[in-house]
Amino acid sequence: MGRVPALHEPLKKILGGSTAKVMAEHLDLHTAGDLLHHYPRRYAERGELTRLADLPLDEHVTVVAQVAKAAMKTFNHGKGVRLEVVVTDGSGSLTLVFFGRGAYAREKELIPGRRGMFAGKVSVFNRTRQLLHPDYELLDRDSGADAAEAFAGRLLPIYPACKQFQSWKLTKAVDTLLDLFEAEQWQGLTDPLPPSLRDGRGLAALPDAFRKVHRPRTKADIEDARARLKWDEAFVLQVALARRRHADSQLPAVARKPVAGGILDAFDAKLPFTLTEGQRTVSAEIFDDLATEHPMHRLLQGEVGSGKTMVALRAMLGVVDAGGQAAMLAPTEVLAQQHHRSVTEMMGELAEGGMLGGAERGTKVVLLTGSMGTAARRRALLDLVTGEAGIVIGTHALIEDKVQFHDLGLVVVDEQHRFGVEQRDALRSKGKQPPHLLVMTATPIPRTVAMTVFGDLETSVLDQLPAGRSPIATHVVPAKDKPHFLARTWERVREEIEGGHQAYVVCPRIGDDLGEEGDAGTPAKGAPKGTAKSATKSASKGGTGDEAAQAAAEGDGERRPPLAVLDVAAQLAKGPLSGLRVEVLHGRMQPDAKDDVMRRFAAGEVDVLVATTVIEVGVNVPNSTVMVIMDADRFGVSQLHQLRGRVGRGSAPGLCLLVTDAPEASPSRARLAAVAGTLDGFELSRIDLEQRREGDVLGQAQSGVRSSLRMLTVIDDEEVIAAAREEAAAVVAADPELESLPDLRTALDALLDEEREQYLDKG
């Protein structure tokens, strides 16, 4: 062959350097394959387009519409001019606004009756949706009957585009590419689907699928193409996971069966409450897995407070009874310390094995974190090597080379999405044989995502809350529209504290330019760009009233930075919460300072804790009953749900207030309303997935997966994913090395390379 395989060819060879540079920088498209897989987001027809009535605020859109009227207006006593063009598609109308000299040139082109594609960012000004200075391409320029006819009959692909490279430029680039492939009869195109699968499921050939997705003649073409391309993604991903499961199932492990009359029985005997039905079922699944001679790989998901730690602890005690050691890995030091505290409290004298006054059936529970003093660390390491410590709880410090175990039998990982596959493997290599693995997450994951992201793990779900947990009421506080609601918020906080309770106030940023919290809190997709302050600021700069108001409406006045812990704490202590004990907590504090604050908060010596999302995982203070989340629109749905799970952990009911400046009609407000509307984490994680691209959710959970999903939507394509999982398992069982399927191997290598690269980037 000698040629570069068609799909790997760099775009600059095909489209020229400058075009390729813009596409690489702004759309992350580098090769012919990237562009072929950059599918249209939707298709416009002459009759129905993005219904103008449904345009999302603050998003970059492309619409096809007809000019209804155009008018030139002056402002600032005749010194400024602007052209206002109203376009319509039958469902609604949209105003295009052009300022300054450019207005005159456009007035000549944009006359009533002309049709075109218009691209820009949707904003609202004087209650009207508008595009400010949109790019456009008129579609009936030639206005010959033929051109109009061709346009009327065509489905126009609308691509995910950006300001620097509009959808119609992408159409031209894709056309160039398709012509090249057609000329070479699609040589060099590898098809990952085995022919038997393709024929058995009646799926289109790959060149057909690419033709039909980019140049469809009918809606049926689009359906055919999508059905085929979804299968590619689902199947290759599921083969990768099936191979991982297959490799794991070949590994030997020591079966760990609990012994009667051991530490587990002693622990169960002194439990002050009975386990829930769910806890018993899940425990049984885990003990069955532990009794086999292959390593368990199980994902345990359960809401905050559903009793996952109890289930994990019983599994660890069972392994200790069987002569092994158990390690629990937490994402942060604060959380590792908290787990250590709660495990030793739950075990009582059973956690003092080998110590004076300890139970003779007990075992030592040690803590191992990066910030421990040398002496304490040396003692902990010694306890691990000798087997004196049956249970160790720690951070990634456990994975370091120096850490040696006597006989590691079980690894429990808390909050999986902060812990990649590679780290699981590193810890696994600590055992004489691979240890059993239990992964816990409090982020509820819809079944399809579990099949996609954690497809190499079996799943158990705890969905009942233990008795005695109180319900949490959640309300949205629109601070900008109704400032008195915000004042009432602080009154409510004061009332709770006067009633003997405590409060959290959560902010997205630390302050003093320490930036965002390291382990959370990047603004969620779809957060609103302009806010009240930016609007008033740009209007007061003394720009001509109209243009300043315009900029404010556009949200291009600087988007104010997210509220910061240090600023908010200072303002609250001086203002609405003066006289109360207000303290701060964030990830950049020294570990001992953090612990000190948390300890005093837990002891009731602090009334209000102003914190970043460091509290999202695991801090347990039953006396805290109210949480105020500032700039709530800057957090994802699942994250908000996690955060509010911190209140109402005792017998008093919890209250969560979501403070936002987002305008009423924005997607952000819809997200917040969803969180306020239900306490069901699984329902919310579905909403989260539907509203964000699942890439964000998957990317959080495991390196590399997000980049491979373009056509597949994890929520809607449950059937494809489940079917692909079955087919993949059959293919891998018959031919684990895929020797008979070279094209599938090629596709897999490409996926896994990308996954490894992404992982290295993250490192």
From TrEMBL:
The keyword DNA-binding applies. CDD domains: DEXHc_RecG, RecG_wedge_OBF. GO terms for molecular function: ATP binding; DNA binding; DNA helicase activity; hydrolase activity. Residues 515-560 are annotated as: Disordered. Coiled coil: none annotated. Keywords: ATP-binding, DNA damage, DNA repair, DNA-binding, Helicase, Hydrolase, Nucleotide-binding. Residues 531-690 form the Helicase C-terminal domain. GO terms for biological process: DNA repair. Residues 289-462 form the Helicase ATP-binding domain. InterPro entries: DEAD/DEAH_box_helicase_dom (IPR011545), Helicase_ATP-bd (IPR014001), Helicase_C-like (IPR001650), NA-bd_OB-fold (IPR012340), P-loop_NTPase (IPR027417), RecG/Mfd (IPR047112), RecG_dom3_C (IPR045562), RecG_wedge (IPR033454). NCBIfam families: PRK10917.2-1 (NF008167). This is Probable DNA 3'-5' helicase RecG. It comes from Streptomyces telluris. The gene is recG.
